[in-house]
UniProtKB/TrEMBL annotation:
UniProt keywords, alphabetically: DNA integration, DNA recombination, DNA-binding
Endpoints of the signal sequence: none
GO molecular function, one term: DNA binding
Name under which the protein is recorded: Integrase
Listed InterPro entries: DNA_brk_join_enz, Integrase-like_cat_sf, Integrase_recombinase_N, Phage_Integrase
Length: 152
């Protein structure tokens, strides 16, 4: 592989793959990056380029930080493939925005809908009874998923 491969060319995939990937949460992040750095060579991207992109989403710190994270992984992978020199990840020099901790609770309507869905799954047998019990345990106890998964 040649150091200097374009940033966008590895992202080009079939239309079917794009449609499938478009349903994931990463697509908006990569679409924004692709439109912002459309023809830049991977080896030529600097901290200044990343900083401009990061500041572009500064009004939405959560999105800016997720974009930063995806880019950091991408540059680390480029280093693994020897498309960039080791320790040259420009994203690491850009500080993430502070984020407010967000607590999210299900509304009464959402709890009712979840209850109906779980009951339906129990009656039809479409889900494992262990999975249904784990979800109920999460709701009733407030434990973390990892704590429930490691119960014996």
């Amino acid at each position: 592989m040649v150091a200097g491969v374009g940033l966008v060319s590895p992202l080009r995939v079939s239309s079917a793959s794009q449609r499938a990937f478009g349903k994931t949460r990463l697509w908006p992040v990569l679409r924004g990056v692709k439109s912002y750095l459309p023809v830049t060579k991977l080896k030529d991207i600097t901290k200044a380029n990343i900083l401009k992109l990061h500041e572009k989403h500064g009004d939405i710190p959560y999105q800016a930080n997720r974009t930063r994270g995806v880019l950091s992984k991408m540059f680390n992978y480029a280093e693994d493939l020897e498309l960039r020199p080791d320790n040259s990840n420009p994203v690491l020099k850009v500080k993430p925005y502070p984020e407010k901790k967000r607590d999210r609770y299900l509304s009464p309507e959402e709890l009712k809908a979840l209850g109906k869905t779980l009951k339906s799954c129990e009656e039809t047998g479409t889900e494992s009874p262990y999975m249904i019990a784990a979800i109920k345990l999460l709701i009733l106890t407030g434990c973390r998923l990892g704590e429930i998964q490691t119960l014996k």
